Amino acid sequence: MKQALEPTADASWVLSDDGCDPLRESDRATRFAISNGFLGVRASQTVNRSPQGVGSPNTYVAGLFDTPDGDRAVPELIPVPNGLQVHISLPGGPLVQHFGPGPSHALTLDMRRGLLLSECRLVDGSAVSARLVRLNLVSQDRRSLGLQMHHLEVERGESEMTLEASFEGLDRDLMAERLDNELGVWRTRRSGKRLEIAAAVALRIDGLEMAPVVLAPFKWSWTWKSRPGQIICLERIMGVARSAVPGPDAGVKALNELKAGRDLGWRDLLTRHETAWAHRWSSSDIDLKGDAAAQKALRFAIYHLNSAANPDDPRVSIGARALTGADYRGHVFWDTEIFLLPFYIVTWPEAARSLLMYRFHTLNGARAKAADRGWRGAFYAWESTDTGLETTPEQAVGPDRQIVDILTGVQEQHISADVAYAVWQYWQATGDDEFLIEAGAEILLETARFWASRAQPEADGLHHIRNVIGPDEYHENIDDNAFTNVMARWNIRRALDVAGLLRQRWPDRWSALSSHLDLNEAELKRWSDVAETLATGLDPATGLYEQFAGYFDLEDVDLSAYAGRTVPMDVILGRERTQQSQVVKQADVVALLALLPGEFNAGADLKNFRYYEPRCGHGSSLSTAMHGLVAARLGDVERALDYFHRTAAIDLIDTKSAIGGGVHIAAQGGLWMMSVFGFAGLALRSDGLALAPQLPASWTSLSFSLQWRNRSLAIRIDQTNRTLEVSLESGLPMIIAVYGEPHSVSLDQALVADIRQPVEPGDG
After folding, report:
1. Where does the record place the Glycoside hydrolase family 65 C-terminal domain (predicted)?
2. Which of 679, 697, 728 is the last residue before a domain boundary?
3. How do residues 560-614 score in pLDDT, each as one tens digit?
4. Which of 58, 117, 146, 541 has the smallest number of Cβ neighbours within 10 A?
5. 415 and 545: one domain?
């Protein structure tokens, strides 16, 4: 066991922290969380922790939502019983954690192996001391399984010692249907879902197994005489199952999973988990030379991205904090489609497909939302759980402690185009025609129908979309938001493309789908008319998009006067003044630059970026990554690098902004996007891939892998030698554009090209 407890030697794969600051314990629990897309476990203290201790350990199961009691209650992801508690004591009381020289509560996240390791010393005055090392994992190989190992070495003293292993929260948030020694079955109070947990423990002292005393369900105890040099090993395996509705054979699934784990044993369970992680890293790692901080930040981002997805469950998606915390109640936002899907699409297409199937399975909820408001098609929930119904809270307490109405669930409508965008990107990159035929086409058509219904013709001959909120949530009830309208137009045009494609390639499917949707040629013609006449806010003379109608007339606040602030701009200026100003919460027109760069003429991209960038207050964790991506594409590489490190700091650096509510998973996706779509200049096109690398001066090389239409490619950008190399590792030959010039690549012929020296962007 001792070797398994040693972390990976390469520091770029390891995140470490030592100490025990009660004010930061919740942040550490987030940062060092482990997950596999089904089970998520926060890295809270679990040894001799008092019930009133800091950082209550939380375990989450994806898709386990329930609605608490109370008026206007909102569904939320609920914590489940936590099976990590250990209490070690002597006759006089518990051993206490030692905070003297040496590790006091060291945490190590071995990102390469997907393990949480921790270490501490436990003492009883000067009489007894012991060193405890722990290993926790949730299996990347078999997601229903969790494993916990304790390695306790007695350093000094002889005494009767008792170790008690237990679960916490057996009666919290869930209603118990069955509680046996090793099996629990619960159901949610209002949604009627079932949770099953089965657990088994084993304790060995100097290699000899001791039988436990069972004190209660999920509570085991052992007592023995300790002596110096003694080695105590505790092994705990847990099997978990979730069901949509209660049914017969309660507990059978969890017991079967537990049996599978026990049959494997901890060594094989660990080995299979490490092998699964090795496979994930071989497909998704970014190897960066020249910037150790950026390398670790990227590994941290990719670790959490790989931890967040479950390709085997198309009924769940990834919440704004994944399974690492409770902020935003576990709800799913546009974050998933815009900031996470790009990573999965080119490194883990199976996970990307599953996440998009979640949107397909919640399509009826989106239709219902549109119909409730008098529109047609699919209006996706701004915040959603497992049903697809809108779950955005109606009110919240503002920074000034006043109750404010939350309008995003009604007015932030670009979500439907965001989902359509991800569907199209996935299909372009994978060529997954089966997905397009069976699910993707219907999403594209129904979201386009929504926009054609939502946009209304007016006397100026244009169609307008009024009373919305764009990505910049500081401004509500606005008209013709450029991001919303241009994305809506793009959505309609892609739906028309897919209608033509189905008619041409799969006429039987088109006949069935158009009949199912009651979609005829007259309606398609109307969609085309809407797309051609939709107001976008573009000024042809300047090339600038007006963020929304009337934006240019608002107060222009100089944000440089507020440099060094530690609170959002809407708190400083106040809600009313912020709404009457040009201060932007997060990337809006800049987000349009990132997603649809083809909508900007030559030079207009730089003009728009330079106009909107100094007006953005970055009041959202989503913002800096979008700005960094666009800056990198425009050649402003050092500015992009600054945005990169600012984004990395959100979850990795202890600042005044606490992260106890969970990892900002969209920011982690943004780090990957900045690296691959920004600095490497990758673009996914209908005719293939394009690359236009521009690395920061400090980055000597950047290497990564990707998948494209059943091909696997390895890409290396060597700034020292000014070369780009692309190797095709599997699949058919293809053409890749490098700075716009086509190059062929095949299994026996790599692509080698020169890379350009980054230059400061001109005035355009």
Report:
1. 684-745
2. 679
3. 999 988 889 999 999 999 999 999 999 999 999 999 999 999 899 999 999 999 9
4. 541
5. yes
Give the pLDDT band of residue 250 (cuts 50, 70, 90): confident
Q: Which amino acid is at 721?
A: N
Side-chain-side CA neighbours of 759 within 13 Å: the count stands at 5
Beta-bridge partner residues of 712: 707, 730
Choose one of 633, 658, 679: the last residue of a domain: 679
Q: Quick one: CA dihedral 737, 741, 744, 745, positive or negative?
A: negative
d(CA 290, CA 623): 26
Write down the pTM of the prediction: 0.96
| Gap between the Cα atoms of 256 and 273, Å rounded | 18
Same domain, 699 and 740: yes
* Residue 61 sits in the same domain as residue 105: yes
Least confident residue range of 75-89, 537-551, 746-760:
746-760
- What phi and psi, each to the nearest 5 degrees, are found at residue 440? -60, -40
Q: Which residues in 331-405 belong to E strands, given as ranges?
A: 395-397, 403-405
Q: Residues 736, 741, 744, 750: is their CA dihedral positive or negative?
A: negative
**CATH code of 741's domain:** 2.60.420.10
- Other residues' Cβ atoms within 10 Å of the Cβ of residue 383: 25
- Residue 231 sits in the same domain as residue 337: no
Do 600 and 571 belong to one domain?
Answer: yes
Q: Are residues 675 and 691 in the same domain?
A: no
- Looking up residue 671, the CATH number of its domain turns out to be 1.50.10.10
Would you call 473 a catalytic residue per the annotation?
Answer: yes
- How far is residue 720's CA from residue 619's CA, in Å, rounded to a whole number? 37
Label residue 153 exposed, middle or buried (CB < 10 Å: 0-12, 13-18, 19+): middle
Question: Among 196, 235, 412, 473, which one carries the catalytic annotation?
Answer: 473
CB atoms under 10 Å from CB of 603, counted, come to 13
Residue 381 structure tokens = 């929930």
Q: What residues contact residue 580 under an 8 Å CB cut-off, 6+ apart?
A: 554, 555
Q: What is the dihedral sign for C-alpha 269, 275, 278, 282?
A: negative
Tokens of 505: 């390639």
Q: Are residues 673 and 691 in the same domain?
A: no
Range of the domain at 478: 285-679
Measured distance CA(409)–CA(382) in Å, rounded: 5
List the CATH number of the domain containing 44.
2.70.98.40
Gap between the Cα atoms of 581 and 553, Å rounded: 9
Question: What is the DSSP pairing of strand 145-156 with strand 160-168?
Answer: unpaired
Residue type, 424: W
Cα 519-521-527 angle, rounded to 5 deg: 80
Residues 308 and 167 in one domain: no
Torsion of CA 391, 393, 394, 400, to 10 degrees: -160
